[in-house]
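Students often ask why we bother predicting the structure of a whole assembly rather than each chain alone. The short answer is interfaces. A chain on its own may look different once its partners are present, and contacts between molecules only exist in the joint model. In this exercise we take two input lines together and write out one structure for the complete complex. Read the inputs first and try to guess which parts will touch.
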Amino acid sequence: MPVLEAVNLTHVFPDGTTAIRDISLQVHDGEFVIIAGANGSGKTVLIRHLNGLLVPTKGKVLIDGEPITKNIAKARRKIGLIFQDSDSQIVGQTVAEDVAFGPENLNLPVSEIDRIVREALETVDLSDLSAQSPHTLSGGQKRKLAVAGVLAMKPKIIMFDEPFTGLDYPGVVQVLRQLVQLHKTGHTILLVTHELEKVLAHADRLVILHKGELVEDGKPEDVIYRAENYGVRMPVKNGEEVGRITWFK
Amino acid sequence: MTFFHYMHKNTVLHRMDGRLKLPGMLLLCLSASLASEWRHYLVPLALVTAALIIARLPIAALLKEMKFFAVIILIVLVTNAFTIAGDPIPYFPIQSVSIQGVMAGLRFAGRLILVIMVCTIVTGTTSLLTFKNVIEWYLRPIPFIPEVRVATMINLTFVLLPVIFDSYTEMMNAQKSRCVELRRNPIKRVNFIVFPLLSRTLRRADEIVYAMESRCYSEVRTRAMFKTNKADWFILTTCAAVLVFVIL
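Now the answer. The structure tokens for the assembled complex follow.
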């Protein structure tokens, strides 16, 4: 059974624009799925449905076979979402306070929150900055903080919305390392990006959206050579091995 | 700027229970406001100086930055000196300046300096999170006030402010690079900055709401734990004693 499933999802905005149309997608436990597409293809709208932030005009989202609407708080604990703009995700005045925001919402005891925050900051290697203001962090550190904030909720599935936007080379490598590590530790990863060259080598599956519709879904090596038909840069030449384009040394 | 900025340290004042620190601050401010004789100023001043040393706040930097308040203090001094009638200062060329006026001005300036120093100590030793929790704690018994929501709003305001300032600076620079200074009409120039900034801030606020929702925002959340020890009560009692001394 898929851990996450979108069934015939359609979202029409109040002004009549169709953001996504009839999208069906199944994600299995432990998968690393990339959702790619040009700007305006509906990637962000899709993952916001998968986190229950948007309500579809038509269709439904299932988590472990149950509709997401049945228990939205439980669903959001299970599926963490890291936003494109890390600044929007930061609500705390210190790094530790921001990480504690989620567990505090779950009404956990203070001692448990302290432990969770410590663990989450250790995981992303930000323990030394716990008392610092988030706005003084670098782009890569902010992205790490956003990851720690989500990890504190102990999700099984983690979704990243354009995690490489605005990051320099070391920042990209930092975030990529984090992503791969999270996948190795058993998390299911859904990653929205149009910068395939940075991450494709580590993914199990590539899904491409085009004008709100799901047009490709398969193994990266099978799908990638058609990516440019949908406005996504193909990071490999025809016949070149996808696994070779990793940004890790 | 060092004034009114929290400085993370581990001192008795930093560790003090915020629920007692806030009334302590009010008592000292009240003492400063009610002070009339010079000895009334000396006791709070001694206490504030001791607190500055104990809190390990950068005294030299604070003294240097007092210049930002110098204009206000000077206005207070001059206004009092000119408006309060009394005996003229011997050999002073301006006859309308009275000895009583200057003394009253100095007293007002002293009060102002004391209040600024007290607020600096409190803000320098109390994180915004503690402030938020204390406000939430004080609002809790008041009926019909959603204390968690109010505290969250205060918190978000502090989170959003630097972001709004950053956006403003970025927009101003972008407009300067396109020669906005050549526009003579100030209303148009304000228009160019206010509406995009408002729209960007609202969009960002929307994103923050989504981000909070995705992390299960709830008003039934873990409450802050406060710890009070003997030192905290001693500090509060000292502040109360200073007020009693000033009143008597």
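Check your guess against this: The mean pLDDT of chain A is 91.
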